[in-house]
Amino acid sequence: MTDSGELSIAPLVRSTDGSDDTAKVVADLVNAVYAVAEDGMWPEGATRTSATEIAQCAGAGQLFVASFGDRIVGCVKVVQLDARVAEFGMLAADPEVRGAGVGRSLVRFAESHAARLGNEIMQLEIIQPRDFEHPSKVFLSQWYPRMGYVPVRMEGPEVMYPELVPLLAVPCDVVVYHKRLG
């Protein structure tokens, strides 16, 4: 189930000469996970991210990867929203290591990281279809509350992310969750 070694989580660091393809590996992982987790919500062949975006997030110190040995098995992006609120997103765990606690460890890492920076609240958002229940979204709507997250509002993407509306294959809502840190 896992490669040798314990799970480690660290900032994504790319070589300074651009010779590695780590950003592509992470982008491929995120896109593969979200292709299943958001199947039917986006047009066929849509991708969640790119190696360029991953490299930009890494350069900004926002992207963290989970590894077993030298194998990347997950990632999470953590951004500062305001003086006391951070948000995590782009959470992905390799399906081959499901059940090993990678996702939960990444969430806990994101929370600890945000708390060390002085944040009081961790936020996350889930885009979910409006007219049907998607199994992955149902799972997440139960999983996050077990970790202390509470839904605080729901908006249409036209309010929060109008640029996404033409990219969606079905009508969706964005559910915002908060958790108090500390």
UniProtKB/TrEMBL annotation:
Protein's UniProt keywords contain Cell wall biogenesis/degradation: no
Alphabetized Pfam families for the sequence: Acetyltransf_7
Gene3D superfamilies on file: 3.40.630.30
Residues covered by the N-acetyltransferase domain: 20-168
Signal peptide: none
Keywords for the protein's UniProt record, in alphabetical order: Acyltransferase, Transferase
PROSITE patterns in the record: GNAT
Source species: Rhodococcus indonesiensis
Domain of life: Bacteria
Protein name: GNAT family N-acetyltransferase
